[in-house]
Write a structure and sequence with these properties.
Keywords: Membrane, Transmembrane, Transmembrane helix. This protein is an all-alpha fold. Helix content is 81%, strand content 0%.
Length: 108
């Protein structure tokens, strides 16, 4: 976990140095990818230390952050769409769920 923390610090530091419209998560990802490149001297250690980590605990905060970022920018559009967008969302979720159930039932 120390390696991930260091990558986060590097990403935040780079974000402050290079004031481009790129979010912190992109700089943090670039720092982590760069640390794990095969020609880097610490690549074996980085890969060995992060290999045991599961994807779900790592991706959950990023997905929550993305959801919050999207929700702040889309509130006015959602208010304008009203009931229509909720009906489409419910139909989409229902169709996706039923499609997954049918595929799982057929294959399992």
């Amino acid at each position: 976990m120390t390696i991930l923390f260091v990558c986060c610090l590097i990403g935040i530091f780079v974000k402050k140095i290079i004031p481009v419209g790129v979010p912190n998560i992109a700089w943090i990802s670039i720092a982590a990818i760069f640390a794990a490149l095969p020609f880097m001297p610490m690549a074996d250690y980085v890969i060995a230390a992060t290999d045991k980590l599961g994807l779900l605990p790592l991706i959950t905060p990023a997905l929550a952050y993305a959801g919050i970022a999207i929700s702040k920018s889309e509130v006015s559009l959602f208010k304008q769409s009203g009931v229509k967008i909720m009906i489409i969302a419910l139909l989409t979720f229902t169709g996706t769920y039923l499609g997954s159930v049918i595929i799982a039932d057929a294959l399992l």
